[in-house]
């Protein structure tokens, strides 16, 4: 009875207070009826054993496909029954208190919240007691019974929420009204085979009443993009918490924004919806936002001409465990001021860390504060004037992903990932013979980081922001400059010093030539710093080639069986061709190379992966409507190949695809796989491709 009432015609746009209350009651009844309760799912493991040790009922499981090279032809019978479904919850994020402390030659441990300026540009990193190791507990995915998934309500954060939305709204690229109105509001997600309940023209009053219930509201920006909105208490602030669901279908990370509420603010900040639609449109064109990227405004935003744009960061040490987060990967957008835009464009890590120092969060806060004072003013005199174009943005400091600069007592270490060799060579070939400058990434291994602060007089100073209140052991830096103009007559072997938030290393021309040769040959190199006659008073700068130490694809799992992709190398698939049928599209967004890093050649088989992706799209194109109607709008395809074995699995939400789809996949994939086994593709090979089914929108 409650659901029948939910399906009644949409209320009038100009609803009065009584109708607004009715809308709230309607949503409450929908939740009470079981349309979207948060139920605990029953689980079993892949071998059919329940967590309590009992044997599960496996009579309704779906199938995988395994082939030997001799048996690569369509088959009518299914392989052994296998089922793995999973409910993946993000790991708890570590909560650490931001703390700023100064760096100087004879500094002692400073108290909470104190800051002290660096007085000497040749300052050393002080010795400190060992920093306690932070270990994040691993939580393996828990498989679900495949025959139970039909009755489990879809979370507002799951991509499956987008199934059926196209039946409730039009196919326009943006459903945001041009006037003061709000986009359609999803009141309740219909179960399989039932239509969802949508309020096409919600009023601000209706939305304000619903938000008082403390439940997230889901707005429909278009048939492929949902936005969840909730008012939360984050830290000591009351915030609008806005998160997307649907950007993954284009290969774009989802976005969250924590916007501090103004006093007595009730209306949803609708301008952020327009920002998210623009991000969606850019992603359709292949223009993506990544960690430390930005978007800027040419006009006023959120009632201020001083709001300059958003800086997007990946979360690291910030507290997030009280928030309902989108599926990984996601980025957090931080509102920045107009005078901060130059740094966001040419050296964003400086702005990110400066925000952290200002608000006592390590490495940076995730909250956006309107009408705040900018943290940088006129550019003035900075070492960055020599390295980047702060006026026209024509050139910038080349930053290498996962290159880290770690400074300890008497030693600095620059860790260069082996898989970034080409980027290092590009930097060398484009720099002049006397200077090599490289931007570094933020290191989660360091317990503190150098921060560049511009004081009221416009002078740039150095501070350090710490993850905890303990003394520092390893301090990160944001860039390194090797200057090969040191004269042998200076009396120094080499000199290292802290400059703003980076490391300056002055070396002789002979040492510079040795450094260049070592970089070309991927060899480690040690620079000894200090006076020629200083005896044992030496400091060292080590340049080390390392395997990629930064964990990638954290908390990302396979849609086939919940297999963790943590530490697995991946890259985006650029798919030019559209595969459309019945108003629906299928697109491959990413490939994961599942073999061990040591076994992966310097040239991953991207072209072979792309050929597999296109063949899969062609095979599934006739089934797009059926797949999406059954909640399978995110699909994984895993292909394993060796000299005596070929195997593939395709699945969605922990369930393997049915035989009717596998037969078409056989016909499409076999010619491509034959080509992969006969050409120069290095075996063994295991890859997983990710596909999304979405609606074809009206541009």
TL;DR of this structure?
With 699 residues, the protein is of the alpha+beta class. The protein is built from 11 helices and 32 strands.
Topology summary:
Elements: H1 2-6, H2 17-32, E1 65-67, E2 85-87, E3 99-101, E4 142-144, E5 185-188, E6 197-199, H3 204-211, E7 217-222, E8 225-234, E9 237-245, E10 254-260, H4 271-284, E11 294-296, E12 307-313, E13 330-337, H5 341-346, H6 348-359, E14 367-368, E15 404-408, E16 411-417, H7 421-430, E17 435-439, E18 448-454, E19 460-466, E20 475-476, E21 479-483, E22 492-499, E23 502-506, H8 509-520, E24 525-531, E25 539-546, E26 569-572, E27 579-581, E28 584-593, H9 606-620, H10 624-629, E29 634-642, E30 645-652, E31 655-656, H11 659-678, E32 685-695
Parallel strand pairs: 10-13, 10-14, 16-25, 18-20, 21-23
Antiparallel strand pairs: 1-30, 2-4, 3-19, 5-6, 5-7, 7-8, 8-9, 9-10, 11-12, 12-13, 15-16, 15-20, 17-21, 18-19, 22-23, 22-24, 24-25, 26-28, 27-28, 28-32, 29-30, 29-32, 30-31
Task: Name a few traits of the molecule.
single chain; 699 residues; alpha+beta; twelve-stranded mixed β-sheet; ten-stranded mixed β-sheet; 11 helices; 32 strands; globular
Task: Describe the fold and architecture.
The strands form four sheets. The chain has a twelve-stranded mixed β-sheet. Strands 5, 6, 7, 8, 9, 10, 11, 12, 13 and 14 form a ten-stranded mixed β-sheet that branches. The protein is globular and about 85 Å long. It is of the alpha+beta class. Residues 1-17 and 31-150 have low confidence and may be disordered. It contains eleven helices and 32 strands. This is Zinc finger FYVE domain-containing protein 16.
């Amino acid at each position: 009875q409650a659901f029948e009432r939910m399906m009644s015609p949409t209320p009038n746009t100009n609803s009065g207070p009584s109708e607004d209350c009715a809308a709230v009651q309607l949503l409450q009844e929908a939740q009470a009826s079981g349309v979207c309760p948060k139920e605990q799912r029953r689980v079993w493991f892949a071998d059919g054993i329940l967590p309590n040790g009992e044997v599960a009922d496996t009579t309704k499981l779906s199938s995988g496909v395994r082939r030997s090279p001799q048996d690569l032809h369509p088959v009518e019978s299914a392989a052994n029954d296998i089922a793995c479904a999973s409910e993946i919850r993000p790991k708890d994020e570590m909560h650490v208190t931001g703390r700023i402390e100064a760096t100087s030659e004879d500094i002692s441990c400073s108290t909470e919240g104190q800051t002290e300026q660096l007085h000497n540009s040749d300052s050393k990193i002080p010795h400190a007691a060992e920093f306690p190791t932070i270990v994040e507990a691993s939580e393996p995915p828990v498989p679900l019974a495949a025959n139970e998934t039909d009755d489990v309500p879809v979370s507002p954060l799951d991509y499956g929420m987008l199934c059926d939305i196209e039946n409730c709204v039009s196919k326009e690229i943006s459903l945001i009204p041009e006037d003061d109105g709000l986009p359609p509001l999803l009141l309740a997600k219909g179960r399989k085979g039932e239509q969802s309940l949508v309020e096409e023209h919600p009023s601000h009053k209706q939305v304000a009443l619903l938000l008082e219930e403390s439940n997230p509201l889901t707005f429909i920006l278009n048939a492929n993009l949902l936005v969840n909105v909730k008012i939360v208490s984050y830290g000591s602030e009351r915030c609008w918490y806005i998160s997307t669901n649907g950007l993954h279908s284009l290969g774009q990370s989802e976005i969250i924004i924590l916007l501090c509420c103004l006093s007595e603010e009730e209306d949803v900040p609708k301008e952020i919806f327009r920002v998210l639609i623009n991000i969606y449109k850019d992603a359709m064109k292949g223009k993506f936002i990544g960690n430390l990227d930005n978007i800027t405004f040419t006009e006023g935003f959120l009632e201020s001409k001083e709001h300059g744009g958003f800086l997007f960061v990946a979360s690291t040490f910030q507290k997030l465990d009280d928030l309902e987060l989108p599926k990984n990967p996601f980025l957090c957008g931080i509102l920045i001021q107009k005078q901060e835009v130059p740094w966001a464009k040419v050296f964003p890590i400086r702005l990110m860390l400066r925000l952290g120092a200002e608000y006592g969060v390590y490495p940076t806060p995730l909250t956006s504060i309107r009408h705040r004072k900018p943290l940088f003013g006129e550019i003035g005199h900075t070492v960055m004037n020599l390295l980047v174009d702060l006026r026209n943005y024509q050139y910038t400091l080349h930053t290498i992903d996962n290159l880290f600069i770690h400074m300890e007592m008497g030693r600095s270490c620059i860790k260069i990932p082996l898989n970034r060799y080409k980027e290092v060579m590009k930097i060398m070939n484009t720099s002049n013979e006397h200077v090599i400058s490289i931007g570094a990434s933020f290191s989660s291994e360091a317990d503190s980081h150098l921060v560049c602060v511009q004081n009221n007089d416009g002078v740039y100073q150095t501070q350090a922001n710490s993850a905890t209140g303990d003394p520092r052991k390893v301090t990160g830096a944001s860039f390194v400059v090797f200057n090969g103009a040191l004269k042998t007559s200076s009396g120094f072997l080499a000199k290292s010093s802290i400059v703003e938030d980076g490391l300056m290393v002055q070396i002789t021309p002979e040492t510079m030539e040795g450094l260049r040769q070592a970089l070309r040959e991927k060899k480690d190199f040690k620079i000894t710093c200090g006076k020629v006659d200083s005896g044992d008073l030496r400091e060292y700068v080590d340049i080390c080639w390392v395997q990629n130490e930064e964990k990638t694809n954290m908390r990302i799992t396979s849609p086939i069986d919940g297999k963790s992709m943590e530490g697995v190398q991946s890259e985006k698939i650029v798919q030019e061709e559209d595969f459309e049928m019945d108003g629906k599209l299928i697109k491959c967004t990413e490939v994961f190379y599942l073999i061990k890093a040591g076994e992966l050649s310097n040239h991953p088989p991207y072209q072979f992966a792309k050929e597999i992706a296109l063949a899969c799209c062609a095979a599934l194109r006739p089934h797009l409507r059926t797949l999406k109607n059954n909640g399978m709008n995110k699909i994984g395809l895993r292909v394993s190949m060796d000299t005596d074995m070929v195997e593939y699995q395709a699945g969605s939400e922990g369930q393997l695809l049915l035989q009717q789809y596998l037969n078409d996949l056989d016909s499409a994939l076999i010619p491509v796989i034959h080509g992969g086994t006969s050409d120069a593709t290095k075996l063994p090979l295991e890859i997983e491709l990710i596909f999304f089914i979405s609606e074809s929108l009206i541009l």
